[in-house]
Write a structure and sequence with these properties.
heterodimer; A: 127 residues; 0% strand; B: 615 residues; alpha/beta; Helix Hairpins; Rossmann fold; 4 domains; 6-stranded parallel beta sheet
Chain lengths: 127, 615
């Protein structure tokens, strides 16, 4: 067992599951999407991104690309949230919640691809 | 650049993750710790404010407590966060500095800079592999001619001097092993601007790898390799397309030529001297028995040349073990004194002091002169710093490898046609050389002429008009008429006419409006000559390989498109002759003696006046 592989897999799957946890729930109901979950999704996604730095293989490059997409989408969601709450100083309504959650949904897709790549790599290794 | 970026990202993974962790812990803590509004209402900080506060606190900017004054619990957490984040930043910045000092990183970074600079070269350049004495001399000589160079050498100490040496345009330097093909590719040998690769390392095997690698990666580039090992030499000659220079053999060839065919050597020295300077004196080595001190690669090459010139010789070498394979003229002896005596230096006409040791060579000269004061001496200089010492011997001929290499390489690069001409003169024996000497003597007397190549390039408007515009063929003699005064001739001697392979079916008679036929070989000439500038002319015509060569061509020869003519002439003649290339009128002018009408309207007038009955 390789500790590096454990840490790598852990962060990729955690990034995906946190993202999923934030995304799940009716898209237009703010009370179903908690900011702390979004915050941790961003943090873990950033860590996953940094872990993928420096791998020059093709699959490594694809991994890095998925993480970049996920981070960008999640940070965009956080910025949208900040804009509505702090700049426009309004409570979250159905429309803005839908914007934030759909951005997080995009990130979830990228994270899912990342997990699929991880599984594919693992299956190829075991053969 | 990709290499450097990936290296940085890989090395900075740990510090970056540390920073992310530190920030997230501090932000989450700030959100979780209870605060209150000025009215005393319980209040929790949002993620946005928490991140803002941490951003300015961690970078020690400190804007104070926003949006409301902190509670003591919040202050407790911020104190903890400050120390945590300072440690995180110190670790991250320390890692960046450590990385910038790292040898691997610096090598990758300087390689990236080198690649970018090579990619930015927009002028012709030569790649020099091996920056030893010869490499340095050639780099300086090419720089003086206005050509850029790229230097590849394994030893950083050897190329360190380039930064302080006096160059017009400093060479680009890569410290790497030129035997690796990717190093050659990085040095830019496959780019169209790269005109020649010079393999000048001390190691024959390395030179062979460089030469073969270059031929494979880019067959259009000229390759010149310095090789002394016979096996490697025959390898490269079999491989083809590589100009091999063996400094020992070249020198021995000169010695042999001086004895056997003095006219050819005289011609060679005259034409390869410094243009505009005094014609070099010929050496005139005496004929008779010779003594060779040192029978290594150098001695062997000279011995072969002496045998070929029909001169008897004896040799001795103190470092050689006696063996049956040595020729009977070679003695192995304990001391130089004994060797000179055994080779009967008292009865010899010449001595070749060709050992590896400069002091030893000087000693040999002194000893031989004591026995035989009138002996002619040829000395080999091994180390550059012994120049003064060797000059003190006042030898008839001195062999300095780096000087000889520079001479040979420049000759091969700048006037490749001159080499072919001299080759013809050597093969032909004395007749051609004597004829050429007479013509040169009549034109230039005691001066060294300038040598240049004129190309009959149909893509140049002047040449196109002269070739296709009129019924008269363009003759070689037309190029020798002074464009300023048609009654005078230019002081130049056509030495060689080189004609590329069979011409396309279209003959020289073509209607003026027709586009010139485009064959692949013409395209190449077109590409080479459409560039301007001194360096281009220096390295431009080197790549063409003619199929047919005529030495000392007849002035009445009709020229064809694609012909190269090598002229020797006085200073300034070349630029006068170049007027024929660009502007159609000089050729008309020199042929008819009258300035032709240039514009369409005046051409119509002229035609109407010439044939009044035709309209």
């Amino acid at each position: 067992m390789n500790l590096e592989k454990v840490i790598f897999g852990f962060f990729i799957i955690l990034a995906c599951s946190l993202n999923f946890g934030f995304f799940i729930g009716d898209i237009d109901r703010p009370e179903l999407h908690h900011p702390i979950e979004l915050f941790f999704a961003i943090v873990v996604n950033l860590i996953a991104l940094v872990l993928k730095f420096g791998d020059r293989t093709h699959i490594g490059a694809t991994h890095l690309a998925t993480s970049l997409v996920a981070c960008l989408q999640l940070i965009a969601a956080a910025l949208a949230w900040t804009w509505v709450v702090y700049v426009e100083k309004t409570a979250l309504d159905a429309g803005s919640t839908a914007t934030i959650v759909s951005l997080a949904g995009g990130a979830l897709l990228a994270n899912l691809i990342s997990v699929i790549l991880l599984i594919g790599e693992t299956l190829r290794q075991s053969r | 650049m990709g290499d450097v970026l990936f290296l940085v990202l890989r090395r900075l993974r740990a510090p970056l993750i540390t920073l992310i962790a530190v920030y997230s812990i501090a932000v989450v803590g700030l959100v979780a710790v209870p605060g209150e509004t000025p009215e005393g209402q319980p209040w929790r900080m949002g993620f946005f404010h928490a991140f803002y506060v941490m951003s300015y606190t961690a970078t020690t900017i400190g804007f104070g407590e926003i949006p409301y004054p902190f509670t003591d619990a919040q202050r407790l957490w911020v104190t903890f966060s400050i120390y945590l984040s300072v440690i995180g930043w110190a670790y991250a910045i320390g890692s960046v500095f450590a990385l910038s000092q790292d040898a691997t990183f610096r090598a990758a970074a300087s390689r990236a800079v080198f690649l970018r600079r090579v990619a930015g070269l927009r002028e012709p350049y030569c790649v020099i592999c091996g920056y030893g004495r010869s490499g340095r001399a050639i780099a300086h000589a090419l720089d003086a001619q206005g050509a850029r160079t790229v230097v590849v050498d394994l030893d950083p100490a050897r190329v360190a001097g380039i930064a302080v040496e006096d160059f017009d345009a400093s060479p680009l330097v890569l410290v790497a092993d030129a035997r690796h093909p990717e190093v050659l590719r990085d040095a830019g040998i496959a780019r169209p601007e790269c005109r020649a690769v010079l393999a000048l390392t001390a190691d024959d095997e390395a030179n062979q790898s460089v030469a073969i690698g270059t031929r494979v990666l880019d067959p259009a580039t000229i390759v010149i390799a310095r090789v002394t090992d016979p096996a490697v030499k025959s390898n490269l000659q079999d491989f083809g397309g590589v100009a091999v220079i063996d400094p020992f053999e070249s020198f021995a060839h000169n010695v042999g030529a001086d004895l056997a065919a003095p006219e050819a050597l005289q011609l060679e020295e005259w034409l390869t001297g410094v243009p505009g300077g005094e014609r070099p004196e010929t050496v005139r080595l005496p004929k008779g028995p010779w003594v060779l001190a040192g029978y290594g690669r150098f001695g062997r090459a000279v011995a072969e040349a002496l045998t070929a010139a029909g001169q008897p010789w004896r040799a001795f070498d103190p470092y050689l073990a006696p063996s049956a394979s040595l020729p009977q003229q070679v003695r192995t002896c304990a001391s130089a004194e004994e060797g000179l005596r055994e080779c009967e230096v008292a009865g010899a006409v010449g001595l070749v002091a060709g050992t590896d040791d400069d002091t030893m060579n000087l000693g040999l000269v002194t000893m031989a002169r004591r026995v035989n004061p009138s002996i002619a001496v040829v000395v080999r200089q091994h180390k550059a710093y012994n120049r003064v010492l060797i000059e003190a011997a006042r030898a008839r001929l001195t062999f300095v490898q780096s000087d000889l290499m520079t001479h040979e390489v420049l000759q091969a690069l700048t006037t490749p046609l001159l080499n072919r001409f001299l080759e013809l003169a050597r093969r032909d024996g004395a007749a051609l050389a004597r004829q050429a000497l007479q013509r040169l003597d009549a034109s230039f007397g005691r001066q060294v002429p300038f040598v240049w190549t004129f190309e009959c390039d149909p893509s140049q408007p002047g040449i196109r008009q002269a070739l296709y515009g009129t019924a008269d063929p363009l003759r070689l003699a037309d190029l020798l008429i002074d464009p300023r005064d048609p009654s005078a001739t230019l002081n130049a001697v056509p030495l060689l006419l080189a004609r590329p392979g069979p011409m396309p079916s279209a003959g020289p008679m073509r209607a003026p409006g027709d586009p010139e036929p485009a064959s692949p070989s013409w395209r190449r000439h077109l590409r080479m000559t459409s560039r301007q500038g001194r360096a281009e002319r220096l390295l431009g015509a080197a790549a063409a390989a003619p199929a047919d060569e005529v030495a000392l061509p007849d002035p009445q020869t009709a020229l064809r498109p694609g012909d190269f003519i090598m002229f020797a002439g006085s200073e300034g003649v070349e630029s006068l002759q170049r007027r024929f290339l660009l502007d159609p009128s000089p050729i008309e002018f020199v042929r008819t003696g009258a300035e032709p009408p240039r514009s369409w309207l005046f051409r119509r007038f002229a035609r109407a006046r010439r044939s009044p009955s035709g309209g």
